[in-house]
């Protein structure tokens, strides 16, 4: 039997891996193309940030009790991470998109040359998640600890 002390760690890590692999499957379903880049990508459905922290919180609640201080701490931590993934990081990506479009428009409209290397840098637009992607990760994070519970406790 696996030590019960590893239950939160294993569920959190497994939820993360399942969500990351799930992104590849979802991408294939949407496009008909396999792109293994999604296994390590941020953004996309389901959110691995959400799945990881949800699994951690739920497994701590199951193991230590839902009235424990550590469950309260991990739950607040989870809410902060999911809020950040859905709002702060998502809108940071949108700001990158807007900035890149403005630079492109200025080049085309005015003929300005942007010689500074910073304008040539390729920035990733998808940093965060849409709400539905966070919910998808949340669901993954609920399922994994419930399935693994009999193996540990």
UniProtKB/TrEMBL annotation:
Signal peptide: none annotated. The keyword Transcription regulation does not apply. InterPro entries: DUF212. The chain crosses the membrane at residues 68-86, 131-148. Keywords: Membrane, Transmembrane, Transmembrane helix. Pfam families: DUF212. This is Divergent PAP2 family. The lineage of its organism: Bacteria, Bacillati, Bacillota, Erysipelotrichia, Erysipelotrichales.
